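WARN retry 2 of 3 for item q-0093 after timeout on previous attempt; input resubmitted unchanged.
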Amino acid sequence: MSSTPTTSAITTILNSKNRNPTSPPTVLHLSFTQRRDYFAVGTTSGFIIFDSDPFREVIHREFTSLPTSSIIVGGGIGVIQMLFKGKITAIVGCGPTPQFTLNKVLIWDDYRSQCIAEFCFRSKVKSVRLWKDQIVVILLNKVYVYNFEELELLRQIDTMSNPKGLCEISRESEKVLACLGLHQGEVRVEHCASKRTNMITAHDSNIACIALTHDGRFLATASSKGTLVRVFNTWDESLLYELRRGSGRAEIYSISFSMDVQWLAVSSDKATVHVFRLNVDSRAAAAEPNNFSPTSASFLSLITGIPKYLKSQWSETRFRLPQEGIRNIVTFGQQQKNTVIIIGVDGSYYRCQFDPEARGEMIQLQHYNFLHPEQNF
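OK item q-0093 returned
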């Protein structure tokens, strides 16, 4: 069980405009806002918030230690989630010298430069998600949903072991939450407004990554094998697409839908970002989530005797990163159509463009390193 959330008057953060270029911090966590227009970086000394597109630093905060029971000397932030433009963030300590104990979630108000509330648990916090009026806290075997205003526990969900803290929420007012179920390969989808729960058996092996569309109508999942990404209708649990990243095992780092649900991007430890075409009629999908244009993969799935390897749909385009094994997350650009944004724990920021009418490699438009800003210009 979680303890009762409390308000807090912790004022331990300083604005640091002059970074030490010879000793940059280590990145501990990366996340995008709900609308993907900003991204946050949790580091060993604090956190930084950037505009995603166009790229620019917006907020840079570093911690100092004060004599309070919530704080350990250090500065490490292992989870950071922003509410829209980043003025309200949820932060969790991590790293060799965490700023806060790892079982606490603190709500940071950047307008007032202080933490305004904290949530304390009996075990480590794995992840956090934010709606404008609710906060979702993910532990190893539990998901808690609280009301922001009264700090009241609204619901709790039991899950199977979830060391990655996998959980996603919709970005629109119609609240949809997707988390692990109680069985291997199972995803639980909560349609909060209708109080309906759907259990989707997505894979035979453990779930490694999940994503929701902005309205929560569609769910994408990848397993620990990392060869396939499956797309489901969250209302009737039907399998809509089976997308093949490759034939060899891989660790999927992130999955992202485009806002119009025409494209899906996948990043992995193989130093490659793949973009798949979904062929969704966005206008029809808004009214009827089952209205999909058939693809060659869906036609093949109706024919018996064809190997499963050939039935799945391959990516339209891809972008190769310089080094394997660098954790990165991906989303679609906001300012220009057919672009993707890739950010990595090595400080890399890439903006790339793909041709929707042709297969092949993406074109790199921009590349920066946000840990070494002095080298970018």
